[in-house]
Amino acid sequence: MRNVCICFWVVCFFVSVSFTSSCSNIQSKNALYLEKDLIYKPNIIGHWTLSQLSINKEPKTPKNNKPIFKVKSKSHGAYDVKVNYIDPYSSRERDEHFELRLLKIDDNLYADILLKGREDERHTFAFVKFTKNEKEIHVSFPKSNINEFENLLISQPYLIKKGDVEYNKDKNLIILKATTSDLKKLISYYFSHSDEFSESISIVLTQDPNSSLFRQKENLSLCRNLEKKVRKLLTLLEDSKNHAKFLKLALSESFLKEALRGRTYSSFVNEFSEYGAKRMLDQIRTIQNLKPKISGNGETAIYSFDQPINGQKNIIFRKIKNCWYIE
To answer: Quick one: what percent of the chain has pLDDT higher than 90?
Structure first.
């Protein structure tokens, strides 16, 4: 029973411990990539979990017990992935480790997955698609019964040599011994003609909002995107409980250091809430739908008001170390 649980949770993104027939049953002794094929996608680094959409597809999966996929960068284009989850049958916390590499074939993104620490290390593959904001990953694993695969080799003999395939009919496993070049042809054909085979396993991963890496990426996005930052500043200003967060997001480190000389941060926040927040709120509300004038070097953005607000004609943002701050 434990293998069934791991099979859905772990393999449904990358690879299975047991490779049962409900998971990807196409494996390879060789990799799908050459070193020159690998691509680096920094946004995959972080913590991920199964989306609610994927959880809903598997009614036996506990709704409050999603696995966490922790992705770190390694050398030579590889990512180290650690999967942490609670085994519902033993109630024990468990980990699995594997290596992930990304590559493109015919402008499509694929993953080569290698489970480490096993006697017989094999590769499996997935078709990968990021959403536009790259906060979700759609993953599809190949699945085919042996008869279908044998028919494929008859109809498309150029894809792979019959001698490069082994079958384990007891476990419905298809084990490939083909070269990397032939594997690329096969996998590309498979996913472009997936309607001819059994349905691929498809899941959606979403960034874990509770992870510190997720919050760091969000803060970095706010830091660099001025329009997004203005909207966030407005939201924080509208609630006095968030004024401390507003000041840390709006003001540069050097400005805050100077402003805090001889006083505590809490006293600075209280003073702002009492004397400056209303004026700043009027200004931020005014500029939320305006386009700023950007300086030639791209480091200054000036929002000009049609009418002065509390005696000010504009509000200026300055870029410091690639982050926008109110001057």
So the answer is: 18
pLDDT grade for 189, boundaries at 50, 70 and 90: confident
* Beta-ladder partners of 57: none
Secondary structure element (H or E) that encloses residue 110, with its range: strand 108-115
Closest by CA to 110, choosing from 119, 120, 100, 118, is 100
The alpha carbon of residue 191 and the mean position of all alpha carbons in its chain are separated, in whole angstroms, by 22
Model confidence at 128, in pLDDT bands (50, 70, 90)?
confident
Measured N-to-C along each axis, helices 212-224 and 226-237 cross at an angle, to the nearest 10 degrees, of 110
Exposed e or buried b per residue across 251-282, where buried means at least 16 C-beta atoms within 10 angstroms of its C-beta: bbeebeeeeeeeeeeeebbeebbeeebeebbe
Encode burial over 308-324: b for 16+ CB neighbours within 10 A, e otherwise. ebeeeeebbbbbeeebb
Q: Over the stretch 208-226, which tens digit does the pLDDT of each residue have?
A: 655 665 566 666 667 788 8
**Identity of the residue numbered 54:** S
DSSP 137: E
What is the token pair recorded at 294? 């950007």
Taking the C-alpha atoms of residue 223 and residue 233, their distance in angstroms, rounded to an integer, is 11
pLDDT of 290 strictly over 80 = yes
Q: Which residues pair with 38 in a beta bridge?
A: 103
Structure-model confidence comparison of residues 261 and 90, the more confident one: 261
Are 136 and 206 in contact by the 8 Å Cβ rule? The answer is yes
230 forms beta bridges with none
Structure tokens at 212: 């510190």
Name the amino acid, one letter, at 305: F
Beta-sheet strand order (sheet of 300-309): 293-294, 300-309, 312-320, 323-326
